[in-house]
Amino acid sequence: MSPYLNGIMLISSVLDLLSVDFKEGNDQPYVLYLPTYAAIAHYHGKHPGRTLAEVVAEAEAYAAADYPRLLARGARMTDAERRAGVAKVARLTGLSRAYVARVDLRIEHMRFFTELLRAEGRSVGRLDGRFLGWEPDGGLEHMSADPSYSHILGPYTAALNQYVRAELGYENDLPYEILSGATHQAWSYKEFEGRAVSVVNDLGAAMRANPHLRVHIACGYYDGATPHFAAEHVVAHLPIPAELRANIEFAHYEAGHMMYVHEPSRIRQSADLAAFVAGGSGSG
């Protein structure tokens, strides 16, 4: 990563895949996803009479202290601790106490999207938890499709096709792929063999080399792919001196992975990014 930049804009980012990788022995994702689960539960009416800010703040406070300590205790957890933990996690996530107990207080994200509204025959989106889909089989562990992806795939493809051909006059017979599975499968992770993919040290090195480098990080509260609390956790562990932390700013939106799908968020994000660029160019 080149340090010779005025600024970096990260939208729905993952700097360390360990923070979102649900693998055996790694409790980080269960903890860091909790505020996102709570936000999505709030959106779907599981926290009546409370604001989104209140619910997220409570979930973040629990995920920052008691929840990771409880999971770390494992079999050393007392019955009283387990009961209290199950009750707390169930209330925050909108899931039943029986379900939370069955999964040992560890809620995997694809399971959550399928379980939250299972009784209604619905699943919620991974990319954007506001979206709903119908499930043909009420016993599935993982939803049959991500409704938030299904809802935007066609419109985004059509919009880009119209833009590049009609407005830009670009002609090409190759199909446009919004997400390419072949490219993903062919990507080399050779330099990360034996460890999680992470660019934390690269970003830290760039900021130490250039103390004027500013970083803008945009997050959506309903983003079930790259949860906001995971981004905050990783950034809090960047290897930079305290005086450089003021160079990092977060922006949170009441939307999902592509926060610009939500019109109020799109408008506010446009202004936020313009202000960030203007500040970096000295015109702000």
Write a brief structural summary:
The chain is built from 12 helices and 5 strands. By secondary structure, the protein is mostly helical.
3D structure, described in words:
The protein is mainly alpha-helical and 284 residues long. It folds into 2 domains: 1-21 and 197-284; 22-149, no CATH class. Helix content is 45%, strand content 8%. The chain has 12 helices and 5 strands. The strands form 2 sheets. It has a 3-stranded parallel beta sheet, with helices on both faces. Strands 2-3 form a two-stranded antiparallel sheet. Helix 2 packs antiparallel against helix 3. The mean pLDDT is 94.
Major sheet summary line: 3 strands, parallel
How many helix segments? 12
Order of helices and strands: EHHHHHHHEEHHHEHEH
Strand content: 5-15%
> What's the β-strand tally?
5
Q: From the structure provided, what is the oligomeric state, counting identical versus distinct chains?
A: single chain
What structural class do the secondary elements suggest?
A: mainly alpha
Shape: globular
Rounded mean pLDDT is 94
Overall helicity: 40-55%
Low-confidence stretches: none
Radius of gyration: 20 Å
Query: What is the terminal separation in angstroms?
Result: 26 Å
